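Ticket #4471: complex job returned nothing on first submit. Input attached below:
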Amino acid sequence: MTPRPPHVPKTVPVTPAPAKTSTTTTASEPEWQVVTATARGRSHIAHGLSNEDAVAHAALAGSDGIVVAVADGHGHERHFRSKTGSALAVRVACEAADALLAELAADPPPAAAADTWPFLIRDGLPPAIVRSWRDEVGRDIEANPYSELELTSLEQEGDGPEIPYGATLLVAVITGGWLISAQIGDGDLVAVHPDGEFSCPVPGDDRLDGLRTTSLCQPDPLDAFRTGARDLTAEPLAALLLATDGYGNAQASDPWQPAWARDMAGLAAERGAGWFAKQLPVWAELCASGEGSGDDTTIALLLGPASARNEEGGTWTG
Amino acid sequence: MTQTTFSQMPGGGISRRPLHVLVLADCSGGMKGEKMQALNYAIADMIPHLEAWERDQEQAKVYIRAIAFATEPRWHIREPMPVTGMRWVPLDPVYKGLTNMGPAFSMAADALAPGVIERRALRPAIILITDGLATDPPGQFESGLAKLMDTPAGKSALRLSIAIGRDAQSDALTKFIDDPAVPVLVADSTEDIADRLVAASLAVSRMSETGADRGAVARRLFGLPEGMSGVFNQDTIV
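Support reply: We reran it on our side without changes. The output follows.
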């Protein structure tokens, strides 16, 4: 099947989820639906820290596509503006995906290379995100200059101005029958196949040892981005998970993905977005609790076209 | 391991992140008598402190393992044992046993290898307790330590060392800790061993808490000067 090229998109309104448990659903790109939830980690509550995760999603107006982004601001004291850093990350990721599609629609590849467009987006997304994120960080610093104390701290650590804003980022774009993914840092991107198998849309990274992570704020972030492009017409998915590490670190099984994907494929076949909209905040709260990872937990669940449509009292638009 | 399962959630339920505490205990011949008795008492005394911390915090579940080493190492507690409710089975010294540390490090490395230790585990703590200088043949100490430091978990571990007696405060222990910010904890007498282990357990627990000011805790526990807390800085960028 020939991939459907993206249409010219309009400006995408992006609404990051508030830093509390929340759910949202939308429908776009043949019936993909998005449900999100975030919860403040118990250990963050105990230490007076706010929820430093962020999540945003948007319909790609001209293409029936969607973009979803999840970010996790680093908890270390060096990254004292990471809450802002993660909020900026999800916003610029959604905007960058939209802008790339617009560029592609305005200046499409030649007919002989028409099927290269998903890879152009895949390869274009990280530099566009990094450029925009750094610009936004610069603007935020202009608006909220570092104090003398903060500048001294940066100098002592030898840190550049972006370091306090450090955050991870996971992005998924579904458009034209393709899934395009990008990730920097820890967290989980898990594709659930209809038969209950799972796969990872981006390659792994041995540097992520659970203690340190790659980050948008590091000097060479482009080298740390992991990306992927997958033809969903050839390889349909039941669901896709984007989650900050508070979710995976709460899972008792090791590895947790096989049983999780098996269960999720079953749930996606039986339950609709309305049911997930009720469940996801509970899952996020449990994972973020003192019985789970105790860390901020943010989940974005994308339900594929084949997922059930029975709503069981849930409210969503689609 | 204990799990909390929620039927509505996909997967195998949730649980706290494991915090593995690995005790490397010197059981050489020189430990016989009062020292071994004091060591057993001190470890048994440390356990309730870790247990209380586990109850009070919101993130970790503590598991204990122990290697008894002399001429050769052996597992005293091979499988991670939940600290809650555990009873310490006393160690015995090995008659004429030497103080070979390299093989003990190697054994610890095997237990902390990727795929053996959980990916989601908090960085482990390794507590080395000895009363003497390493007696390893040439190269054995170094190769064992190198194997430990080659594992991500071993390298990132909070490595603490308790020297029983001033004479035991050797370069070997400093190499094991591998951070000038972390002092060897010296027990001047057998009575001091329990105090030093409590300090070690406090270090293990407090440093493992998300959002803790690890530098401040290190300075408070170990009397370090301002800025000397490198090993405790974590959860940051590569």
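The radius of gyration of chain A is 19 Å. Closing as resolved unless it happens again.
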